[in-house]
Structures are given as C-alpha cells and as structure tokens.
C-alpha cells in the first residue's frame, strides 16, 4: 500500500462492494439508492455493497452504476477510487435546484461548467482552474437527448457544501449575482477530480426543486412526486448515453495543461 493505485484499488472494492476487475469502461454515478435499485431491476442484476458506504451494480455488458452518497467529499472519494481502473467515461446523474425562472422542475441541465463553491476541489487545483466537463462526452449526451426529443438546458451550476441555505437571503442574493442556472453539492467536485485523475466526466442534472422561493423548497412530498414523474427518464437517458457511446461514440482523449 505504498502508492495511490494500490490504495485506491483496494478501497474501491471495499467501498462499493464490487471487484474492480468487473467494472466496465463506462460508469454512471448517482447519490440516490433508488437509481441503483431501478438499474438492478432493469438488467436483473444484483446490488453490491449493501450495508456499506456505497452501493453498485453492473449489467452483463459491463455498464456500471455507483451510488456514492451525498456531498462533495464523497464525490471526490469515488473519483479518486475510480482512478485505479481508469474508466473511459463517467456520467453523474444528479439532482439540482433550479435558480432561474427558465429552469423548472423536471427540466434537465447539461452543465457547461460549475462554480467551485464546495471547497473540496481546492485540495486538487487552485481556484483559478475551472470545473468543466469533458466536451465530447457532453456532446454525445446532448445528441441522445435531442434524438429522444427531450428539452434540456445548458449553463453554469453552482456547487456548495451547504445543504441548508434556503433561509439565507444574503446567500440567495449572491447566487443571483453569479448568474448560476442551478445549484447542487457535487458537480464541480466531479469535474475537478475527474480532471485531476484524467477521467472523462460529465453530468446530467434533473431539476428537482426551485429553492429561491419558499414555496419551491423541496419537501418529502415534492421529492416523491419528482421521483415518480422523472427519475425513470433520467436513468434511461444515462443508460442509453453511456451504452451507445461505448458502442459507437468517437474516442475521447484527455488533454492536460
């Protein structure tokens, strides 16, 4: 256990419950267990890691899904662990709050960049380094959405470590000032740690609430409604994108600077 690969290879198995050798080239990430359960039901495969910090499942073609939990620290952890197997691409299926009137519940956001308000990414690069997805991966996901005639938004999202901020009017003024389209806790971290670990990465976010107004704050009932109406489609788009890019997509090369 003297180098990063030895550590991360051992920990990937321990954290996710899956033998690293079984992971394929394309991986879906989420922080909701019902996504893993739906994936398991879709492909009739077992869920690994139950009772541990993360869960995972792999279909017979090698497409994988991992629930890494909530928050930027967990997002950084899974991306570091995945560096041991060097997947060709990772797509984060997350939920976000819509910050603009043009982003309503049920919309999809394909982020062009993320503002690094979460702090975790500072351990990887200076703040001046932008948190961005891999363009070719997002280009392919965009094509899948268009083929399925699904409306989506592009723009910048803000990632924060603050889970409870909806009462803070000063913070909401700041969010308006930076012109972010959505807010979540993990996207910036996934982008930066993917860049640090030379992993091609992207995110397809589902707008699950509109927290800039009191009536738009997520509740248990509203979250259940979002799950019922939109989660199946969200997962379907992720599965289709990562399956097809593996079969027919153009090669993605990671460039460093």
Explain how this protein is built.
With 257 residues, the chain is an alpha/beta fold. Helix 5 links the parallel strand 6 and strand 7. Helix 4 packs across helix 7. It is globular and about 45 Å long. The two termini are 29 Å apart. The relative contact order is 0.19.
Please identify, by name, the CATH architecture: 3-Layer(aba) Sandwich
The SSE order reads: HEHEEHEEHEHEHEH
Number of structurally distinct domains = 1
Task: List the strand order in the largest sheet.
Answer: 4-7-6-5-8
- The number of helical elements comes to 7
Shape: globular
Please report which band the strand proportion falls in: under 5%, 5-15%, 15-25%, 25-35%, 35-45% or over 45%: 15-25%
The CATH superfamily bears the name Nucleoside phosphorylase domain
CATH topology: Rossmann fold
- The radius of gyration over CA amounts to 17 Å
